[in-house]
Amino acid sequence: MFTPKHGLFKILTEADIKPYKIEYYCENRDPDFDRKMHNVLLVYKQLELYFEENKPLQTEEGKNIHVVSYDEKPGIQAIATTSDDLPADETHQCIRRDYEYKRLGTLSLLAGIDLQTGDAIPLVSDSHTSKDYVQFLKNT
Asked: Which of these, 44, 59, 73, 128, could form a disulfide with 109 (CB 3.0-4.6 Å)?
């Protein structure tokens, strides 16, 4: 009897592939890594002092610092249902949704959180370009 788990094991064994014997490592290729890491950790320490001791977030020159944690998720599938959901009833405790859907393309989510206020800063875009990032920065 061929089962997916057994079949995969057989293929890996015959090819003498042992993924469980692979260890990964991270090589530091940036000569400025320590300086950059120090600057990031300094910002986190300043944030800690901002919240614990109400100290201002400023550079050594006295310029204000605005800290936003940023990430992006490109290629999010935009979909729509093709029929209405069925409501919960005595038999089904949850609403029910048909498995069919219509594809509407993809979107990119650029999002940040203001680490001082906790405000979320979202930007949804049809594209994923540097112009989108510039627009995100203008929104912060």
From this structure: 73
